[in-house]
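stuck on this one:
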Amino acid sequence: MRLNYLKEIQETADNKVQQIISELKAKSNLTEDMKNTDVLCWVGTMNSIKAQAQEIVFSELIYA
């Protein structure tokens, strides 16, 4: 019973993180061309976006 609850929380958190990443990526100046032209900038921005999304989800779902 407890494992099902934890699995549900994990799935909800993962889905929310992906949704927030998509939203933040759309708001940023990040383009697919940057993968080929400015890889370090693209990777840095994606890492920042992922960290922001995870922190938002942690504070909403986990720490609440």
Notes: The first helix runs from residue 2 to 27.
